Amino acid sequence: MANYTSEASESPDESRRRAENYAPHLNATVWFLTAISAIFLGLRVFVKVWRKRRVRCDDCILVLGWIALAVSTAMITLCTTFGLGRHGRYIRPEDLSNLLMTSYFAGFASTLAVIWSKTSFAVTLLNISEGTTRKVVWFVLISANVVLGLNATLQFVQCWPPSRAWHPGAPGKCWLGIERVRAYNIFVAAYSGATDIVLALLPWKIIGHMKIRKKEKYGALFAMSMGVFAGITSFLKITSLGAIGNVDLITMVNLFIFGTAEGATTIIAASVPILRALLHRQEAPP
């Protein structure tokens, strides 16, 4: 709710809090992350076309992941026009519902970006794995989609009618309390990070036994292990999940930054191995 106290009668500390606005910082950060991931994805597709390689299922899924990330970033920018980046008490009441509704859609799109980019890398691994390793990849792929997919869905079914979530005073009921929602999001972030690390380590088993030059082998392993950074980003996101249910909406800034970083890092991590493989092979099967 907005504070209508006269600005002339405010204390210096109150005036400072009223003037705080992290919207420019938020917009610059999320668009930078989205642009960097777009560059890596664009290079991946360009190099494939340049080397006359087929665009496969994993490429298409990754493109969908980036589109979801871009939609999320655009929705975050829309949120800033409703006051996101400022302390909650200084956001106009007529803007609050629009901000909350837009933030739910931004979070939904952000989760889709993570799901699809993670799926893309898993599909890539399925193309080069076999036996037990292939079963592990399938388990990670299916379980990550279920866990993250449920998290995305819960944003719109935790209250009935769904609009009750962004109209706190409207008639309706929320069957999940804030503490449960926050706890599940912590679990999701931890599980997502763990799956990133598992997918990043599996290439050591797949490529480790191949009879290729050590320099080429370690270069490929390093490139395919970039997912570790996506996992670290997901774990760091846990520190910002206290924003869920927090009445001071300025805390959502870090949550959106880490959410965008998670999707962008996963897209980059999924693009680097393909870029390296294509640029370091003079001849490769179509």
From TrEMBL:
Domain of life: Eukaryota
Rhodopsin domain location: 43-281
GO-annotated cellular components: membrane
UniProt signal peptide: none
Membrane topology: Multi-pass membrane protein
InterPro entries in the cross-refs: Rhodopsin_dom_fungi (IPR049326), SAT4-like (IPR052337)
Keywords carried by this UniProt record: Membrane, Transmembrane, Transmembrane helix
Location(s), subcellular: Membrane
Transmembrane segments: 28-47, 59-84, 96-116, 136-157, 186-206, 218-236, 256-279
Family according to the record: Belongs to the SAT4 family.
Protein name according to UniProt: Rhodopsin domain-containing protein
Taxonomic lineage: Eukaryota, Fungi, Dikarya, Ascomycota, Pezizomycotina
